[in-house]
Amino acid sequence: MNARTNKPEAYTNGAEVHTPSFIDGHSVDIPILKLLKEDGSLYPNAELPELDQAKAEKVYRAFVFHRVLDERMTAAQRQGRISFYMTALGEEATTVGGAAALAPQDMIMAQYREQGCLIYRGFALTDFMNQMFSNEKDLGKGRQMPIHYGSNKLNYMTISSPLGTQIPQAAGYAYGQKLQGKDAVTMCMFGEGAASEGDFHAGLNMAAVHRAPVIFFCRNNGYAISTPSDEQYLGNGIASRGVGYGIKTIRIDGNDVLAVMKAVQFARNYALEQQAPVLIEAMSYRLGAHSTSDDPSGYRSKEEEAKWQAHDPIARFKAWLIHQKWWDEAQDKALFESLREEILAAVKVAEKVAKPPVEDLVTDVYDQVPKHLEKQLSELKEHINKYPEAYPFTAGRF
Amino acid sequence: MAQMNLLQAINNALDIAMAEDDSTLCFGEDVGHFGGVFRATSGLQEKYGKERCFNTPLVEQGIVGFANGLAAQGSRPIAEIQFADYIFPAFDQIVNESAKFRYRSGNEFNVGRMTIRTPYGGGIAGGLYHSQSPEAYFAHTPGLKIVVPRNPYQAKGLLLASIRDNNPVIFFEPKRLYRASVGEVPEDDYQLPIGKAEVINQGNDISLLGWGAQMEVIEKAAELAANAGLSCEVIDLRSILPWDVETVAQSVMKTGRLLISHEAPITGGFAGEIAATIQHECFLHLESPIARVCGVDTPYPLSLEKEHMADHLKIFEAIKRSVHY
């Protein structure tokens, strides 16, 4: 971008009018990329993403794993075995498809409903379980609520609860990659609700001005907990914001995994070649509750949910795979069954693993444990020794 | 050794840090060619290029968020917040993100390489929004380090230590002293320890404790006290978090008295934390209650700065009250 084109006089070259009129967000015409029809056939002239049978199968297996994990872990939460869970029902195409279109060295900085990325990247079932059960094998050492995953090895930044904070961070992360000449981009995922936070505006503006190779991926799923999108923003969705920041923007059908993959591959090429940001707005719908603490029947109708059930991204992709003769119903049934067993068995193992040791309370606050924390730990240990029955997870372990 | 003012010492430290590590960056509002409103980054863009020393848009949460991302990626960002009064839009990025990155991820990721520099404090006719000393807000947040230098020599050594420290550091610069404080500063690389207080003056009757620009005021009060026949031990805390309990406690066990002075309002100020800890450590050695001489619990006024400030006279009076308790 030529800096001069940004000066105010550059904007005085538009058509002159001599009676006042407004422009509004809806006058910006934003097309939507769709490749795959509901019945699993392709739109004519649909340009497919780079995808062979092995990759397509990997995407589908991640889908099924995700569905079964969501089903099993919701049940585990209802049984009181874990404290909290968030499903991604209806939105799996955005995350699994997004990860499938990236290279392994690309960083993913997500919000919280993006387990699909980790599933695709091969985060082990035991890693999922250890995190959700906050046991001593959890990579995060049992410090965060369930679903706050992170993996250095898989380039998946640990989730932070405050909304949207990863957005300016992704701009900085990508800028660092750019300065070091890395063959990598950062993909930053968030919901349309998070796009109301100041961090969204801060992050997009920073990335645009400093030309950071970051893909901002908005999962527009229609709800911020219970608040529908028409009570969240006006204008033309989140995509129009990208245009406003001077960021290349594309809107896609977020329930069409082929469109997701195509758009992310397209965006990645642009971000890498041009060393500049891209915004993707994926139109989808959160079929499930916001979390296990939420009951959507209080704010939306069964009819609305049923309408969106028909747009299920997994069913749509499965129909395409069967159409391709890359998959069949018998395989499908077997996959669901084996995953259900595997996940149930993993739950039983993870819940028996010990809680983290008491030392983990004071490590990682700083690079080294400072004196005042050492002192507080030793006082705590003394106290635990006095009342061991009150601290069953840690007593007798130091 | 060279004569440098506090700004030149900071600029010199940044220059050394950028020269030694290609991944070190300086950025913030007007930080690029202009060199920052106070010119702390003068000449760095010319020397290291626009990619490593640059202006950002006016967005503090963006600046710190960007720094968090850079640090998580492995770069060494040094972000400038133009005035400490404007650090609050970035509060969430600092206390929920910078401070907790390593802990929440089980050290899968950390932002330890980042440093936030920001000018703080009054005495420059800055009024409500160019005079605040917000260190206490951050001192309540585990995971941060907070450093405040008092003169050019300290500024260079402590800033280099902050930049190289593997934890996020907020480095508060006493802007009243930016040009007013001039001293001998080695041109070579050196570091001063973070978390270690410095006893500036030995004394027997009372320990006086402060940090940053307030040290100048405290030293002036100690002079008045000396003329009145009182011997003050003067300590510069230098690091607010973690802070050097041991040095302060040792001094108080010797003198039996402690006075803490800071610019920020007294209620909830860091002096309260120190007083509680020292009371615990030194209870049987104390000859009088621990005294606090701090700012008034009002916003920082433009016209009545002198009245608002914990000046040398207020401190002198408090010393006498303490010694004659």
UniProtKB/TrEMBL annotation, chain A:
Keyword Transcription regulation listed: no
GO BP annotations listed: branched-chain amino acid catabolic process
Annotated InterPro entries: Alpha-ketoacid_DH_E1_comp, DH_E1, THDP-binding
Record carries keyword Oxidoreductase: yes
Top-level taxon in the UniProt lineage: Bacteria
SUPFAM superfamilies: Thiamin diphosphate-binding fold (THDP-binding) (SSF52518)
GO molecular function, one term: branched-chain 2-oxo acid dehydrogenase activity
UniProt KW keywords: Oxidoreductase, Thiamine pyrophosphate
Catalytic activity, reaction form: N(6)-[(R)-lipoyl]-L-lysyl-[protein] + 3-methyl-2-oxobutanoate + H(+) = N(6)-[(R)-S(8)-2-methylpropanoyldihydrolipoyl]-L-lysyl-[protein] + CO2
Cofactors named for this entry: thiamine diphosphate
EC id: 1.2.4.4
Dehydrogenase E1 component domain location: 61-358
Top EC group: oxidoreductase
General function of this protein: The branched-chain alpha-keto dehydrogenase complex catalyzes the overall conversion of alpha-keto acids to acyl-CoA and CO(2). It contains multiple copies of three enzymatic components: branched-chain alpha-keto acid decarboxylase (E1), lipoamide acyltransferase (E2) and lipoamide dehydrogenase (E3).
Family per record: Belongs to the BCKDHA family.
Protein name (database record): 2-oxoisovalerate dehydrogenase subunit alpha
Protein source organism: Thalassotalea euphylliae
TrEMBL record, chain B:
GO molecular function: branched-chain 2-oxo acid dehydrogenase activity
The EC number(s) this enzyme carries: 1.2.4.4
Cofactor(s), by name: thiamine diphosphate
Keywords, sorted A to Z: Oxidoreductase, Thiamine pyrophosphate
One Pfam family, short name: Transketolase_C
Enzyme class, broadest EC rank: oxidoreductase
Domain Transketolase-like pyrimidine-binding: 4-180
GO biological process: branched-chain amino acid catabolic process; response to nutrient
UniProt cross-references to InterPro entries, sorted A to Z: THDP-binding (IPR029061), Transketo_C/PFOR_II (IPR009014), Transketolase-like_Pyr-bd (IPR005475), Transketolase_C (IPR033248)
Keyword Cytoplasm: no
Role played: The branched-chain alpha-keto dehydrogenase complex catalyzes the overall conversion of alpha-keto acids to acyl-CoA and CO(2). It contains multiple copies of three enzymatic components: branched-chain alpha-keto acid decarboxylase (E1), lipoamide acyltransferase (E2) and lipoamide dehydrogenase (E3).
This protein's name: 2-oxoisovalerate dehydrogenase subunit beta
